[in-house]
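Hi F.,

I've been meaning to write this up properly since the lab meeting, where we talked about keeping a consistent format for the predictions we share between groups. The idea is simple: the sequence comes first, exactly as it goes in, then the structure tokens exactly as they come out, then a line or two of notes. No screenshots and no reformatting. I'm using this chain as the first example so we have something concrete to point to.
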Amino acid sequence: MKNLNFIKAFFFVALLALTVISCNKKEDVVDPNQEVEVSFSSTEMPKGGTKSSNAGATADYASIVISGTTYTPAVYYLDGVAYTQGIKLPVGDYNVTQFLMMNDNNTPNDMSDDSIVSAAPEAGSQYAGFVSQPLDVQFHVAAFQKNEIPIEVLSFTAQEFQAFGFDWFTMNQTTVREQLFFGDISMKHPADYAGSLYEQQANGLQVDMPAIFKIKVYKNGAFVAEYSNESFLGEGDVLHVSYPDGDNTTDNFQFDLYILVKVGTGFDYKFFKSWNFTDDNLIPNGGDGVVDFVLGNAVATTPDFLLAPYMNLPETATYKIVGAYAPGSMGGYVDAELSNVGNGYDFANGTFASWCADKDASINVGVAYNMDVYSSLYPDALPAFTAYADKWARVNWIFNHLDYYPGYTWGEVQGALWKIMNNWNGQAAGGVPAADATVDQMVNDSQSHTDFTPLPGGWAAVIFVPEGTDPNSTNPNLQTMFVQVDP
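Output, unedited:
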């Protein structure tokens, strides 16, 4: 076994406070919850009068766990003394459970190859007797007081981890991994994004622009971190997403993608996609190391992930069938009056031709229903009883290709919808005539278009289901109704 050269370092906490004095006034009251800057300093000491052979080893940062939170302040040296960047802590009691001095091996953006220079041993470990106060170390942060907290560290080699009491070194060794992301967003009407961050991009508003987005990282169901390219407006660099992968455990990761889009008259980040993978597996990136996606399909080159066009829809609206039905006066199965729609969305208050996607449930004429609103282009968000991606794609294909069927009738369109969505037997029902050859032709033609998404200027179904419907529900208590909107 190698001999260890031990380095003793005393770390002192410097608490900085500002006293404000004014004449002929009461002293300002200082918030007891104010954050106080705490810093650590270290002077390397030889053991037994012998200079450490590792005296030249330096740390680039410290990894300190204080009351369950990990801090990684940078380390710098002045006259042989190591200092950390300040850490701000509210006044209170704290507990140091890990104290490591780390070297980044000249790769500051890659923590996977970092090494421990020195560490504080844990109480009860073989090396605990070499320091006067092994971990855990308790300390108190107080306003207007200077606290000196000595923490002694010893030079570290991986072969001796057990002597420090570090069971985690083998059981929970972690590799920090990284994946890179870049996105594009296609906009039907770029002027709609006036006043957004997109307007600040180098080339201003365009039909096709770099996407501004966030990625939320989850490990084994627990939130880890959020990354965003907002600070550089999505231009000039990819988004670097780092995450910890336990070397000796199976870790399941989920990356959730949120893109900055128009919501009503404003702008916000909306959820679009989740990626799930395990351990060191990677999200497909086409071999270039960058996961790229496009929101909207106005592109000729296929990215790693092509997301359907975004529809700026309200979360809820009021839906009421008005007038006669089968047919309505606007060429659909019924006329639907939509109300309580806010400003700026892809449809407004008004009356629309509407269609039925569920033959076997009922809906009352003249009754106003509070409805949740969904895009058929993102059917995974729909309740289970109507979350049929392939069927909604076929429905949208038909509405975008009605010119293939000269002289078609409203009844033939509704019949084709029922056959696709409900396996209708073709017998007259609900005012819809019996199926004919045109109905069968529409259904057959649509079978090869289960992945269809409309281009800009096309049509996509906007779906209405009762507000608050359980997403896991498999039995609708109301007919699923929809209208067609240009996405």
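Notes:
The two ends are 70 Å apart (CA to CA).
Confidence is low (pLDDT under 50) at residues 1-30, 45-55.

If this format works for you, I'll send the rest the same way.

G.
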